[in-house]
Design a protein that fits this description.
The chain is mainly alpha-helical. It contains 11 helices and no strands.
Length: 266
C-alpha cells in the first residue's frame, strides 16, 4: 500500500509551515545578532538578553502578564467546566438551550475590538457604583475570564459528548451520589478536555492585546502592550529577545501540558 503524501498536499503544507515559522526563526536570529540596526550579521551575542533582564519595566510587564494569565485561566477553567457540565448533563427546554448556546458562541465569534469596547462601557457603568472597576488588574482579569470561559466550555463540552453517558449511568446504578460521581468518574474522564481548555485559555490570555489595552490601567501593563508601545519608538534587539523568550515559554508550556494530559489518559 502506497502511503506517500501527494505533492498537492505536501507542498502547501510545507509552504504554510514556512510562512508561520520562518519569521519566528528570523526574530530568534536577530535576538543574538550584535548588530543593533539593519539586517547584516555582525556576530553572536547575548547582550540584548542581559539588557532585557535588567529592564525593570519589562520584568514588571512580564509579572503582570503571568499573574493575569494564571488567575484568569484558573477562574475560567472552573467556570467553563461547570458551565459545560450544566449545559450537557441537565435538562433544558428548547428555547433555553438555544439561548445558552448563543451566549456561549457569542464571545468566540465577536471581534475583539467590539468585545473590548463593550467591556469599556460595562466597566464605565460599574464605576458609578464602585471604584473597584477603575482600569487596572481587576478589570483585566474580569475581561479575560469573560472571553476565556466560552473557549473552555466548548472544549469540555466536546469531551463530554465524546465520553457519552454510559459510565455515569453505570455509576448511578451502583448508588454513586452526585459529589462522588463528579469527583471519581466525571472529572478523571474530563481531565484531558479540562487541561486542553485551560491551555487554550492561558495562551489566549498571554497573546491578547486588544482587550488588555482597553481595560488596562497605568500600573498594569502587560508584555503585548509593552511590545506595542516599544514598536512606536522603533524595533530594538531587546524586542527580538523578548519575543523569542515568550515564544520559547509558550512551546515549553504546550509540551508540558500535553505530557500531563497523556499521563492522565494513561
Amino acid at each position: 500500500m502506497n502511503r506517500r503524501v501527494p505533492m498537492w498536499v505536501s507542498v502547501p503544507a510545507v509552504v504554510t509551515l514556512a510562512f508561520l515559522y520562518v519569521p519566528l526563526l528570523a526574530v530568534a536570529v536577530f535576538s543574538v545578532n550584535l548588530n543593533r540596526h539593519g539586517l547584516a550579521w555582525r556576530g553572536f551575542t547575548l547582550k540584548w538578553y542581559r539588557e532585557l533582564m535588567g529592564n525593570g519595566m519589562v520584568l514588571e510587564a512580564a509579572w503582570n502578564t503571568l499573574v493575569l494569565a494564571v488567575v484568569s485561566t484558573v477562574m475560567a477553567t472552573v467556570l467553563g467546566t461547570l458551565l459545560a457540565i450544566g449545559m450537557s448533563r441537565f435538562p433544558w427546554s428548547r428555547w433555553t438551550r438555544g439561548f445558552l448556546d448563543f451566549s456561549l458562541y457569542l464571545p468566540v465569534v465577536t471581534p475583539d475590538i467590539i468585545f473590548a469596547a463593550a467591556l469599556v462601557v460595562a466597566f464605565g457603568l460599574l464605576r458609578m457604583f464602585s471604584d473597584l472597576f477603575n482600569p487596572g488588574m481587576l478589570t483585566m482579569i474580569i475581561a479575560h475570564v469573560t472571553f476565556q470561559v466560552a473557549f473552555v466550555a466548548l472544549v469540555v463540552e466536546s469531551r463530554l459528548a465524546t465520553i457519552g453517558r454510559t459510565l455515569e449511568e453505570a455509576a448511578r446504578d451502583l448508588y454513586a451520589d452526585t459529589p462522588y460521581l463528579l469527583r471519581r468518574v466525571m472529572l478523571p474522564l474530563l481531565m484531558p478536555g479540562i487541561v486542553a481548555g485551560a491551555m487554550l485559555a492561558f495562551t489566549l490570555s498571554l497573546d491578547d492585546f486588544v482587550i488588555s489595552f482597553f481595560t488596562a490601567g497605568p500600573e498594569s501593563m502587560t508584555l503585548p502592550i509593552y511590545i506595542y508601545s516599544s514598536l512606536r519608538r522603533g524595533i530594538s534587539p531587546q524586542l527580538h529577545a523578548l519575543s523569542t523568550l515568550v515564544f520559547l515559554f509558550t512551546i515549553l508550556l504546550v509540551f508540558g501540558l500535553q505530557g500531563l494530559a497523556r499521563r492522565g489518559q494513561a
